[in-house]
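User: Good morning. I'm curious how manganese (II) ion would be positioned relative to this chain. Could you predict the structure with it bound?
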Amino acid sequence: MATNLRINADRLWDSLMEMAKIGATEKGGVCRLALTDLDKQARDLFCQWAKEAGCTITIDKMGNIFARRPGKDNSLAPVMTGSHIDSQPTGGKFDGIYGIMAGLEVVRTLNDFNYETQRPVEVAVWTNEEGSRFAPAMVASGVFAGVFPLEYGLSRADLDGKTMGAELQRIGYDGPEEVGGRPVFAFFETHIEQGPILEAEKKTIGVVQGAQGQRWFEVTMVGQEAHAGPTPMKVRKDALVGAAHVVTAINRIGHENQPFACATVGMIQSSPNSRNTIPGKVFFTIDLRHPEDAVLSRMAAAAKAACEEAAANNRLELDFKEIWYSPPVKFDADCVAAVKAGAEELGMPSLPIISGAGHDACYMSRVAPTGMIFIPCEDGISHNEIENATRGDCGAGCDVLLRAVVERANAF
Ligand code: HGY
Ligand code: MN
Ligand code: MN
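Assistant: Good morning! Here's the predicted structure, ligand included:
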């Protein structure tokens, strides 16, 4: 019976393009930062569509949204799928939102075929997956998985000091439900790969085995503001020079730990940021990743040493803080098998793959058997307004999701 279920790829695509209008940018991407009015607008539209598809909506204290389609036995733990609505400042039309629209399309398709699963099916919208406006990433799925206390999540603040708790209240998504602490039979997340492998290997489906570990740091270097003219070079305490040495050191650490390491200084703020004043204070972030924990730890130690050396050589004060550690993740064998089987049944070329990006599925794997489905994205580009995927691949990934969800939702 389940084998003749197929999603409606045009309806999925139209929903994606409709959502892409919310926060649309000049170059065809989206800027829909967590808990902004645009995030609210997209949340409201998702809830409207989910209700139209017969789902009941619950919202928890971290603003996570759960659209629930009843099953034959609603006492059973649900099968859940979902992703995130928030984007990077120069984000694309697919990162996150594709996984939510794919989940909604699964619900719409089950309705089309009047197909009743044994277990309820839920589509989840996780708050602040990106970690761009509020650090760290994946914080709301982290609270759901018991990794962070609720207070920690609600107190995360953006650069203007606005907290997630206050912003959730402001947009009306400070839900009443407790966060997590309830059984989830299986969780699936469908996502663009955000890298070049599937496209290069000409594969439609990535059967995600797990995700690499990440460590995030915040570094502040303090020297002394002084006049760019009369101050001799040898007496300067130039915080930006110190930071510059670290930026190249972080890049070197990435190259020295190939073939998998990734190392990025993504955010930097220099003050007073005036062309004729020596920078007295610089704040910057470090993002380190590797699939092996031991290597990731070595990279972190090397990054710390580089900061200490640059501070000493430039007579700077140093504040070096690790703000987030998300260990490498291995997904559940049954869920991975369900994804692989779905791709094979549908005759789609697939490839086992490790996720370079973090996802809410990483934290969900701590509280539920979890799997992910990847589809290719053009030139492997993501976190960029030109991010692109094809209608066909979006439909293919969603058809695999449908099979995996139905297989698990009828399992005991
Ligand atoms: O940083 C990440 O891997 C994800 O995009 N939040
Ligand atoms: Mn994402
Ligand atoms: Mn992202």
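The chain has a mean pLDDT of 97. The pocket of (2S)-amino(hydroxy)ethanoic acid (ligand 1) is lined by residues 129-131, 137, 357-358 (CB under 6 Å).
Let me know if you'd like a different ligand tried.
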